[in-house]
Request: fold
Amino acid sequence: MIGYLTPNYPLVAAFRSLPATRRRPADRVSQQIFKMAPKLSDFLNDEEIVASKGDLDRPISGLAIDSRRVMHGNVFFALPGRRADGNLFIDEAINRGAIAVVAERIPAVTSARVTYVQVKDARRALARVAQRYYKFPDKSLDVVGITGTNGKTTVAALTKHLLTDSQQRVGLIGTINYDLGARIVPSYRTTPEALELFGMLAQIRDAGCRQAVMEVSSHGIEQHRLLGLQFAVGVFTNLTQDHLDFHGSLEAYFEVKARLFNGGIGSAPRAAAINLDDPFGRRLVAEAPAPLKVVTFGEAADAMIRAENVHLDFKSTSLTLVWPEGRVELESPLIGRYNLSNLLAAFAACYALGRDPQVIAMRLKTFTGVAGRMERVEEGQPYNVLVDYAHTDDALRNALGMLRAITPGRLLVVFGCGGNRDRNKRALMTAAVQEFADHAWATADNPRSEKVAQIFADMKPGLTDATKVAFVEDRRRAISLALDAAGAGDCVLIAGKGHETYQEFADTIVPFDDRQVVRELIGLKRIKPV
Reply:
């Protein structure tokens, strides 16, 4: 999070305690800055407070949710978590200079110099306070929120591409990076916590942007990170089995996604772009609240934005793009049927915003793709190598089904399952790979705190022909074996990590980029022994 939000350092300095030996008062500038500081009471409404102890009408220098990053004069929000409870870090936050604490309970032992505020739900309170603190940045932006199991990253990047022109830059908050208008920083979470989210939207607004595109995860919705955020357009891509370890069931998963469209996060978007080819998309349309403007997309004959005369090959996709007022023939460098759906989703989002369809359609031709999403690695080899983020059985099935149809030779796959994630989908992923692959190498993805052997044990019930899947713990070795096996006309898909440049283990994170590893290995394999 360092560098994502820029503290007001003069204001923070004004809160610093004077040394015990200093007798003169603080300088006039510091005194004036302190007097101009916002007050805690400016951001909390009476009905949001269950109980309090201490002065609410006191100046503050900022907000914090990580005790290690608290600065002088900050308000510390003690958030409950699945791994750690923020209440355990209240003392550390106070020692670092916090002058107020917002939590779901007031500690038994309190400090006289600190204000304590008890709220019913700390995450909901954080979202409300952050939005007010950053002066409602979403009200000054047309925010496009994209949700669904698959396709969020590509649709977000494509929508940003379609909205951007020489006169207007568009912000982006997503899985790969955060484009804040004046700078681009690496992403650490698809949908950030409310504090960072509203802070970044404020930076996007202050950089002169008028539109922002963001990926909306189900975790972000469930944990109230987007509470109160006003979306101009909500986009629904699809819904498949994923994150069921978090949500419990597919029905509960859908219910969370639907909140983006039915006002469950505080207010419904002004418009929605919904995939009519997905059964949950049709259900979402049927359940949409009456005032919501719905734009449907897909290959279905009753979709408002639809693709006709589709031709898919290994290098491009050609189609007739149809909308209520017109149609156009176009060719896109994106490949695969699911990328066709992503293309329609982005077009539908821009159409819902009121953009000129003819202009937007022409820009579709110039979008070359997203890092780690069916990204081709070309080093002059006689076979094709693609790196993709597909890490669910449905995503693998879609990717491999598309590649099977356009690959003249064999289809070879390297894949794995992440540790500390839904164990039920592991066998399903193995089965999905075996539907289409001629041979596969199962390997480590991000094992996290799980043993790779345990992950393999969960994957093996999905085997239909054990001779066609090799289990290799070392990911680099698995990729090397797949490249050794490939010949002219074959296709090697390395799935699961996509754009990621690291591998996550129990106690460490090591550099690992599938694309770079492929380049290194192909180079080494060209070296002939003397």
In short: The longest helix spans residues 337-352. Residues 174 and 190 are 5 Å apart (CA to CA). The chain has a mean pLDDT of 92. The domain at 134-364 is CATH 3.40.1190.10 (UDP-N-acetylmuramoyl-L-alanine:D-glutamate ligase).
